[in-house]
C-alpha cells in the first residue's frame, strides 16, 4: 500500500559483526581510503579562477572577428547572421571607398548579443572569409544586459592571436580523403562588385538597369569613422 514503510530484510542477509555494528572502524577505513587517494592520485581539477583552464584548439568559446592590419576581415555578407539560430548577430554594411582595397564592403558596425549566443559555431562554419571564429574565451561575466552586447571594439581580435584556431580549422577541413586540400586564401572570396568599372561600363552601354541595382550613390547609414557597436538608441 502506498505510504506504508516496507521491511526489505531478507533471510539470507549477512549479519554484521561486533566491529561493524560499532560503525566507527568502517568510518575510519573510509577516511583512510580517501586520504590515500588524495595523496597518490593525480589532480583532475583546477583551482578556478586562480588557475585557468587552457581549452584545446577545437574548443568553441565566444565568437570573435578576425582583425587583419587593423581592419576586420569580414566582408559584411550577412551569412553568419542568417545562419545564427538564436539571431544573436546583427550588422550594418557599408561600401569600401578605397579603390585599392580588395573588399567591396565591410561592416560599419557588427554586434553579437552574448546573452543569446549558444556557442554553436554555425557562424564560423558558414563564413566564406574565415572572418569570424570561435575563440578559447569562456570566462564571460556581465553586470547588465547592455554589457552583454559585444560591438566591434570587443569582437575584433588580431589574427596573430587566433592562429591556433585558424590552423585547427584548416586541419579539420582537410580530413576528407581524396578531396582537394583546403586552404584559406584571402583572394578567394572577393566580392564581384570589386570591378566596379566593368559594372559602370555595362550600365552605360548594355544594361542601364545596373545603375539602380549595382551602382548605389547614397551614403552608408552608419558612421563610418568608428568601429564601435551600435547604441541601443540608434534606429538603423
Ligand atoms: S556561435 Fe552560434 S549562436 Fe553564437 S553567434 Fe555564432 S551562430 Fe550565433
Ligand atoms: S559570414 Fe563572415 S564575412 Fe560574412 S558577415 Fe559574417 S563574419 Fe562577415
CATH hierarchy, class of the domain at 63-187: Alpha Beta
Given the C-alpha coordinates, what overall shape results? elongated
CATH architecture classification name of the domain at 63-187 = 2-Layer Sandwich
Strand content: 5-15%
Using only CA atoms, what is the Rg?
29 Å
Task: Write the element-wise H/E pattern from the N-terminal end onward.
Answer: HHEEHEEHEEHEHHH
Q: Largest sheet, if any?
A: 4 strands, mixed
Instruction: Give me the CATH fold name of the domain at 63-187.
Output: Alpha-Beta Plaits
- Count of beta strands: 7
Secondary structural class: alpha+beta
Number of helical regions: 8
Which hetero ligands occur in this complex?
Answer: iron/sulfur cluster
Distance between the first and last residues' Cα:
67 Å
What's the helical proportion of residues?
Answer: 25-40%
Mean pLDDT, nearest integer?
82
| Unreliable stretches | 189-193, 218-236
Topology readout:
Blueprint: H1 18-22, H2 24-40, E1 63-68, E2 71-72, H3 79-83, E3 89-95, E4 105-113, H4 122-126, E5 132-134, E6 149-150, H5 152-155, E7 156-158, H6 163-173, H7 196-205, H8 210-213
Parallel strand pairs: 1-7
Antiparallel strand pairs: 1-2, 1-5, 3-4, 4-6
The protein binds iron/sulfur cluster (2 copies).
Amino acid at each position: 500500500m502506498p505510504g506504508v514503510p516496507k521491511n526489505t530484510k531478507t533471510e539470507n542477509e549477512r549479519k554484521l559483526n561486533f566491529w561493524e555494528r560499532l560503525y566507527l572502524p568502517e568510518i575510519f577505513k573510509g577516511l583512510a581510503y580517501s586520504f590515500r587517494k588524495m595523496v597518490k592520485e593525480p589532480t583532475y581539477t583546477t583551482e578556478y579562477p586562480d588557475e585557468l583552464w587552457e581549452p584545446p584548439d577545437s574548443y568553441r568559446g565566444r565568437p570573435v572577428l578576425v582583425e587583419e592590419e587593423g581592419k576586420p576581415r569580414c566582408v559584411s555578407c550577412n551569412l553568419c547572421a542568417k545562419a545564427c539560430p538564436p539571431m544573436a548577430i546583427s550588422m550594418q554594411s557599408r561600401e569600401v571607398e578605397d579603390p585599392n582595397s580588395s573588399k567591396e564592403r565591410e561592416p560599419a558596425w557588427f554586434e553579437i548579443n552574448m546573452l543569446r549566443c549558444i556557442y554553436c559555431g554555425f557562424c564560423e562554419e558558414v563564413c566564406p572569409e574565415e572572418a569570424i571564429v570561435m575563440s578559447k574565451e569562456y570566462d564571460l561575466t556581465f553586470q547588465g544586459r547592455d554589457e552583454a552586447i559585444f560591438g566591434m571594439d570587443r569582437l575584433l581580435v588580431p589574427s596573430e592571436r587566433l592562429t591556433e584556431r585558424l590552423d585547427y580549422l584548416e586541419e579539420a577541413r582537410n580530413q576528407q580523403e581524396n578531396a582537394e586540400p583546403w586552404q584559406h586564401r584571402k583572394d578567394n572570396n572577393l566580392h564581384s562588385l570589386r570591378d566596379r568599372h566593368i559594372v559602370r561600363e555595362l550600365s552605360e552601354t548594355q544594361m542601364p538597369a545596373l545603375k539602380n541595382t549595382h551602382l548605389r550613390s547614397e551614403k552608408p547609414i552608419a558612421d563610418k569613422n568608428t568601429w564601435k557597436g551600435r547604441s541601443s538608441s540608434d534606429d538603423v
